[in-house]
From TrEMBL:
Signal peptide: none annotated. GO terms for cellular component: plasma membrane. It comes from Salicibibacter kimchii. It comes from the Bacteria. This is DUF454 domain-containing protein. Keywords: Membrane, Transmembrane, Transmembrane helix. The keyword Transmembrane helix applies. The chain crosses the membrane at residues 12-40, 71-92.
Length: 133
């Protein structure tokens, strides 16, 4: 029963992680890390699929190994965050208090993203080449 629950939680976390790619206030990496933690305890096959996935695997591996988040991912995350937040603040939400709250949340998320270690493309390529040897 425990294994089934962990697989379900892991799969839900992957789903939320994928949604986080589209929805800027939903974090992607924590959900993918949670999925990896659930899968490693319940299914070698699912864990291997997640870690070797061409879209999610490198982000999870680099983050877990303390190498950082790729610069391109950081820039994209901050740009998408502020484009969607700006649209929501200026055109959707009429209440100033909620607009201010969204701005503060956006500022905190931006600060968190930017304070994470940056993995530059040259470092990532170098690390991949060393791993292949």
């Amino acid at each position: 029963m425990k294994l089934i629950i962990l697989k379900i939680c892991g799969s839900l976390s992957v789903g939320l992680g994928v949604l986080g790619i589209i929805l800027p206030l939903l974090p992607t990496t924590p959900f993918l890390l949670l999925a990896a933690a659930c899968y490693v305890r319940s299914s070698d096959k699912l864990y291997h699929w997640l870690i070797t996935n061409k879209h999610f695997g490198p982000y999870i591996k680099n983050y877990r190994e303390g190498k950082g988040i790729p610069l391109k991912a950081k820039v994209m995350a901050v740009v998408v965050l502020w484009v969607s937040l700006s649209f929501t603040i200026f055109f959707i939400i009429p209440l100033v208090s909620i607009q201010l709250l969204l701005f503060i949340i956006g500022a905190c998320v931006t600060w968190y993203i930017l304070k994470q270690k940056t993995l530059y493309l040259s470092e990532a390529s170098h690390n991949e080449q060393q791993a292949e040897r």
